[in-house]
Fold this sequence. Notes:
Radius of gyration: 20 Å
Shape: elongated
Oligomer: single chain
CATH superfamily: Winged helix-like DNA-binding domain superfamily/Winged helix DNA-binding domain
Largest sheet: 3 strands, antiparallel
Amino acid sequence: MAQYSPELDGVFVALADPTRRAVVRRLGHGPTSVGDLAREFPMTLPSFMKHVRTLESNGLIRTVKSGRVRTCVLNRERLDLVDDWLAEQRRIWEGRTDRLEQFVTDPKGKAP
């Protein structure tokens, strides 16, 4: 995995805000109209739309307009970027802690 990824950076930036994380969590239950989503948050619709655009521009959600209703759909595949990065970090740190444990329990390397 590349050390620097603009796509991964964008996903983390989008998920850094609690409102956007709540929208992602809500869309995990299924597609929802922007109006229904916005009612759950104490802010104006234009302010809420900024959050929707951030999520959409970073690929976490897609929106589909049908008549006057814009519906948001979670792009679950985009969350795989975060899963992959976290799995890599977990593997790296587990390897380090395993070596530290081995050093602490058997500093002269006499373990079988």
